Amino acid sequence: MSESSESPLVLVHRTPTLTYMDDHLSRNFRLLKTYASPDPLPVFLSRHAASVTAFVNIGRLKIDAELLSHLPSLQLLVCTSVGTDHVDLAECKRLGIAVTNAGDAFSDDVADCAVGLLISVLRLISVGDRYVRSGKWAKPGEFQLGTKVSGKRVGIIGMGTIGSRIAKRLEPFGCIISYNARTQKQSIPYRYYSDVLSLAADNDVLVLCCSLTDQTRHVVNREVMESLGKEGVIINVGRGELIDEKEMVKCLVEGVIGGAGLDVFEKEPQVPEELFGLDNVVLSPHAAVATPGALESVAQVAIANLKAFFSNQPLVSPVRLG
Amino acid sequence: MESIGVLMMCPMNAYLENELQKRYNLHRFWTCPEKPAFLETHRNSIRAIVGNASAGADAQLIDDLPKLEIISSFSVGLDRIDLGKCKEKGIRVTNTPDVLTEDVADLAIGLILALLRRLCQCDSYVKSGKWKYGDFKLTTKFSGKSVGIIGLGRIGTAIAKRAQGFSCPINYYSRTEKPDVGYKYYPTVVELAQNSDILVVACPLTDETRHIVNRQVMDALGPKGVLINIGRGPHVDEKELVKALTEGRLGGAGLDVFEEEPHVPEELFGLENVVLLPHVGSATVETRNAMADLVVGNLEAHFAGKPLLTQVV
User: Fold this and answer.
1) Which of A32, A170, A283, B275 is the most buried (most CB within 10 A)?
2) Is A286 one of the annotated active-site residues of the chain?
3) Would the keyword Cell membrane be found if you checked this record's keyword annotation (chain B) (predicted)?
4) Hey, which bits of B113-202 come out as E strands?
5) Residue B178 is part of which domain span?
6) Percent of chain A with pLDDT over 90
7) Ranked by mean pLDDT, which of A35-39, A135-139, A225-229 comes out on top?
8) Counting one residue from A and one from B, how many pairs have CB atoms under 8 Å apart?
């Protein structure tokens, strides 16, 4: 793996386990690795990163004004997630820093996970598997009936790359799709609801796959859950903070809503323990993107963004900074 | 009019039981301590049998009930009924097609996703508190994988349509090629398995299809391939399946049915690459009610001299 002295310099931060991009990066760039130094991050950056123009943030390290103040030459921040709620986008805009995200790299896997969670909740797949493995099927007694998936009314909050793929997967199930998003999209054939409360009232399932912003924090609150009703199911593959988690736990325990499939939580990896004993809840450890294919795709998107930046081409997956 | 004797073979649905009880003289076979004596006593009053996927009517039972006119099955599969005998004796047979097609197809996709994305393991990983100590491992993507379907009837077609939403190329095997479907046909199950990442059993169980998924097919599917069975347990050579899974020759299996339900081979209980369900293909409130209505509707039509709703024989 030879490194040409002509290769551009890229600052890289990652946690010890997220090594999937190491080869891609070292093959294409000279690397300044925050994780190769014992120095605390701000010290490391002050010492070594003054001339860095591009930064790859592998994982969800918080990028705030303080951190950015140590990167006076930064022009590009490459993120490996779709969500950029961990980045102070306003500050990036102020400093003239472009930001890119994972683009479409994860979208299929996240959509697959959302549909998988929905079917698992309604058809009691996780419960059923435990039931058989515990030997209970051989004993007298009947396993409970589930709820039909096909034909359900599904309201999707967020109709971007992930939401549209969830809709595409649910259409052959005869699900009736409607959505809420910042703005109505003319190219989309589904019914638009301008507010989440009405969306919840008219649907059996709510799927959360929108970005987390100041406007969308706790977009699913108690009122929305009461509107969804006691047969209603929530699927969250967005961010934990989209839901008022304390209220959701109460709603599930009290039967205000019918069930939930959750891949994300407000304070990961902490998960409210009241959910652990509930059969109508299926939990996942923020694993919607965790397939080798997804990681390979996001690595390629990141490299493509970096190459475009260094050759003055348009970025592949720029994030709108508002 | 003397009341019509209806023999219900096993417990299957409370709503169905009630509806039958209201209309007929319902005999619950599973509560009879001495079955031969019971049959002797009631042989001239039983005119209908209600069976399901677990229990139907074999030749012996049909011979024991000379006044039997109709068998109405609470299932779409008819492998528990001696159809040849019914034809011979002019006994009518009905089942519950169409109303359960979506549920079974939904479950097939659910099994694929739960298996490939390890959703059951993810659920227990979080619920056991393990997430605090580290992330779960990577799992396998479903979208874009090739799906091979054995049997392209109502259920097989519904599965194909759903899998297409995940951009899966669809292959199939059936007794005859269907030229207009737009899916790739393979003339043998082994070739289907060789060319598919996910093999789904969705054909009826007959003498020809017993053990249609045998060792050769499993080897063709291979250590990266997975098997999904929402048909009948005997479609798969279960002994070979257990060996193939425990020896790592087959990548995984999602099973809703087994050869000797409710018995499930215990060697499967410790495997992470299987999803095991207690025959719940049509087990939703909505669908079981619709199936019950069909069973009752067929019986009512028969005894009123009207055309049957879903006649097979």
Assistant:
1) B275
2) yes
3) no
4) 147-150, 170-173, 184-185, 198-201
5) 100-276
6) 94
7) A225-229
8) 182
Cβ within 8 Å, pair A285-B122: yes
pLDDT at A1: 44
Which residue of chain A comes nearest to B102, CA vs CA? A150
Out of A66, A223, A268, A274, the active site residue is: A268
Flag residues of chain B having pLDDT under 70.
1-2
A276: which 2 tokens? Answer: 């652990």
Count structural domains, chain B.
2
Cβ contacts (< 8 Å) between A116 and chain B: which residues?
110, 113-114, 117, 119, 142
Residue A303 is predicted with a pLDDT of: 98
* Mean pLDDT rounded to a whole number for chain A: 95
CATH homologous superfamily of A3-103+292-310 equals: NAD(P)-binding Rossmann-like Domain (3.40.50.720)
- pLDDT tens for A109-163 read 999 999 999 999 999 999 999 999 999 998 877 899 999 999 999 999 999 999 9
Do A112 and B164 make contact, defined as CB atoms within 8 angstroms? no
What average pLDDT does range A80-97 have in this prediction?
A: 96
The pLDDT assigned to A5 comes to 57
- DSSP count for chain B of H helices, then E strands: 11, 12
pLDDT value, residue B1: 46
My answer on whether B182 and B48 are in the same domain is: no
When scoring B12, B17, B116, B122 by the number of chain A Cβ atoms within 10 A, the one with the most, hence best to mutate, is B122
ipTM of the complex, rounded to two decimals: 0.96
Rounded to the nearest angstrom, the minimum Cα separation between A51 and chain B is 34
* d(C-alpha A279, C-alpha A134), whole Å: 15
Asked if B76 and B204 sit in the same domain, the reply is no
Residues of A within 8 A of B264 (CB-CB) are: 132, 137-138
Q: Are residues B191 and B114 in the same domain?
A: yes
Q: Do B120 and A130 touch (CB under 8 A)?
A: yes
Helices of type H across A79-235: 89-95, 107-123, 125-133, 161-170, 196-201, 222-228
CATH number of the domain at B31, please.
3.40.50.720
Ramachandran class of A14: left when φ > 0, alpha when ψ lies in -120 to 50, beta otherwise = beta
pLDDT for the residue B223: 98
Task: Give the pTM.
Answer: 0.95
Please check whether residue B270 is in contact with residue A122, taking contact to mean a CB–CB distance below 8 angstroms: no
Residue A164, pLDDT above cutoff 90: yes
Task: For residue A131, list chain B residues with Cβ-Cβ distance below 8 A.
Answer: 278
A138: which chain B residues are within 8 Å (Cβ-Cβ)?
262-264
What are φ and ψ of residue B160, in 5° steps? -60, -45
Closest-CA distance, A308 to chain B, in angstroms, reads: 28
pLDDT at residue number A6: 77
- Cα separation, B110 vs B104, in Å, equals 10
Q: Is the pLDDT of residue A170 over 80?
A: yes
Q: Identify the CATH number of the domain defined by range A107-283.
A: 3.40.50.720
Beta carbons within 8 Å of A223's beta carbon, 6+ residues apart: A197
**Interchain CB distance below 8 Å, A148 and B286:** yes
Cα distances from A314 to residues A97, A318, B77, in angstroms, run 14, 9, 58
Nearest to A128 among B126, B128, B277 (CB): B277
Angle between helices A292-310 and A107-123 (to 10 degrees): 150
Please confirm whether the linkage preceding B262 is cis (ω < 30° from 0). yes
Radius of gyration of chain A (CA): 22
Write out chain A residues lying below 8 Å of B287, CB-based: 148
Q: Do B117 and A111 touch (CB under 8 A)?
A: no
Q: Does the pLDDT at position A2 exceed 90?
A: no
